[in-house]
Specification:
By secondary structure, the chain is an all-alpha fold. The chain has six helices and no strands. The chain starts with a helix and ends with a helix.
Amino acid sequence: MDKQLTFSQLLGNYGEFIGGIAVLATLAYLAYQLRQGTRALERSDVRAIMERFDAFFVSLGDPKIAALWLEGQAAELKAESAQHLSYLSLVTRYVYATQNLWESAHQGIVSAPMWTRQATTFAVALSTPGGAKCWEQIKVGLAEDFVDEVEELRSAVT
């Protein structure tokens, strides 16, 4: 009977050992799957950001919108006019797309050079007379760190 008990204990010990290995293998597989899922989400985020920029810049391909953009940048639009509101909407879309890029860059989802290239263009747009007026309206409610960085960039390009 002692041999059976010892044999049963031995089988139980082997079962626990194999079960432990199975748990470790399962955890390793889950970690791998999680990493793959995270990478897929990051790629999706980058794609969404690029689509926002693409939509914005494609809209500037329309001669009427391009003219509106140029007039707005020069602050040649009457305040509270339909054209001014359309220009403010364009700038707002640009600001939100840029803030998304900034957040992604600071989270390491997109590369720092990607942010740097876009940041300079953005700062120039917000440093024009019309861009500066819109920025003063839009920046309220944005992330404070983002606003601070944009202010530094604007001061560097003016």
